[in-house]
Specification:
The chain is of the alpha/beta class and 446 residues long. It contains 10 helices and 18 strands. The strands form 4 sheets. Strands 1, 3, 5, 7, 9 and 10 form a 6-stranded mixed sheet that branches. Helix 1 packs antiparallel against helix 2 and helix 8 runs parallel beside helix 9. The relative contact order is 0.09.
Length: 446
């Protein structure tokens, strides 16, 4: 595709219009005027025919995968090779989606000839988590005389992966992420005795009879005692609800409704993963809605954490009702070893709450279950707010009281089953979850 440039309009204005007027006014100058105008048209036509060579010998290269964080400016490394001898000026553009804000719609670049490689950074800022694929790059180059600009779409195959932004939570939990071992973390005395078998040793006066290994004692002929150590390889699973209720805004009264409950769940899950890695525990992920979306068995290490992050960065809320029967059956079949199950879900719907309580019987006896939910807006007991100005405020407070009462009853039912239920504040959600996890470690409940 070719488009006219300002230079063509300029020469048309100073050549065609004046000479056409002179030819009409002075008959003897008609032939020279026609020759001049015709020469310009021939030059423009030849320049148009040569435009096919304007972008010849130009190739572009992009990294295959570009990693960025939400609401943080990143850069795209672009490499352009010019195999022609002459120097050329280019205009380059990428079709950014609305979720990725670019610093400019296009970039002007001057390429040096002689098979030289030009490199520049294209800065952009993603505002939504997910994966964005680019298959084309658009380029515009000038013709030889500059009368025309030729535009072309070159193939480009690269992907921008936008991960959750953990910087705010890292600041709130700075002591946990200090690269100084356990320095900077508040010391917690671990209560009780370890349960992981470490070794056998000879009996010492005062050892409990419960710790005597009778089979080895009979074989050796003298008492042998089992020695235990504090558990260091406990399994921690974060179970994320990605159903319809997780697609709601964190605060229904705020203008910016881009941050959903699921966004907070994913951020909290990754923060727990970092904490579990620092504590030496095994960390796993399970996400579900009406089916199981992803399941990563608990392991440790940086590579495993990256795999968990890869499984979550594209997770979006699904407008379906969660299938809790399938979820608990899946947990019962796959998780044979006792583990800490941290549920991040929404059970303020009475029907879902009833199904959740029924299915907890399948897993609460074998695993330690912590159920967490973001506190819904407007949930509070009646008469706790004296600022009532209209009838709508009365009905809104009545609805908040009913919701508060139902969740309070749900908490009591779950406590009788040995399941801990917590309503979390939006701003302090991650810190509360880390406190729960550290309390479990301190009391050795797993």
């Amino acid at each position: 595709m070719i488009v006219p440039q300002d230079r063509l309009l300029f020469w048309f204005g100073i050549v065609v219009l004046p000479f056409a007027a002179i030819g009409l006014i002075i008959p003897s100058a008609a032939i020279p005027s026609i020759i001049v105008i015709g020469g310009l048209f021939i030059l423009v036509l030849v320049d148009a025919l040569l435009t096919r060579r304007s972008l010849k010998g130009i190739t572009m290269e992009f990294p295959q995968i570009i990693h960025m964080s939400k609401n943080h400016e990143g850069k795209i490394d672009v490499y352009i090779r010019n195999s022609e001898v002459r120097t050329r000026q280019l205009r380059i553009a990428l079709a950014f989606p609305k979720e990725v804000v670019s610093t400019g719609e296009d970039i002007f670049l001057k390429l040096q000839g002689g098979d030289r490689v030009s490199h520049f950074h294209w800065r952009c800022k993603p505002i939504k988590r997910g994966s964005y694929f680019f298959d084309k790059c658009y380029m515009e180059g000038l013709s030889y005389f500059g009368f025309w600009a030729v535009r072309s779409a070159l193939p480009a195959s690269f992907e921008i992966r936008v991960y959750p932004d953990l910087s705010f939570e890292r600041k709130n939990l700075a002591a946990l992420f200090l690269n100084r071992g356990n320095f900077g973390i508040h010391s917690r005395r671990q209560v009780g005795q370890g349960r992981d078998f470490e070794k056998l040793r000879e009996y010492i006066h005062g050892d409990s009879y419960d710790h005597i290994h009778w089979k080895t004692t009979a074989k050796r002929g003298y008492p042998i005692t089992k020695v235990f150590q504090i558990e260091q390889t406990q399994e921690v699973y974060v179970i994320i609800d990605a159903s319809r209720l997780s697609g709601r805004s964190v605060n229904i009264f705020q203008e910016d409704k881009n941050e959903t409950i699921l966004e907070k769940f994913i951020t909290a899950a990754l923060i727990i993963g970092v904490a579990a890695r620092r504590q030496g525990d095994l960390f796993g992920i399970l996400s579900f809605s009406n089916r199981i979306h992803s399941f990563i068995r608990a392991k440790r290490g940086r590579e495993h954490y990256n795999n968990c992050r890869e499984s979550l960065y594209k997770l979006q809320p699904h407008i379906v009702t969660p299938d809790l029967d399938e979820l608990c059956a899946f947990i019962g079949l796959r998780l044979r070893r006792r583990a800490l199950l941290v549920f991040l879900t929404n059970i303020d719907d009475p029907v879902l709450a009833e199904s959740f309580v029924k299915n907890m019987d399948l897993i609460c006896r074998k695993h330690l279950v912590l159920v967490n939910m973001i506190k819904p807006d407007g949930m509070k007991p009646l008469f706790s707010d004296s600022d009532i100005k209209s009838i709508n405020d009365i009905y809104q407070n009545l609805g908040g009281h009913i919701l508060w009462h139902n969740i309070l009853e749900l908490e009591k039912i779950l406590q009788r089953k040995g399941v801990s239920f917590s309503l979390l504040n939006n701003e302090k959600m991650c810190s509360h979850l880390i406190s729960q996890y550290m309390d479990v470690k301190q009391r050795q409940l797993i």
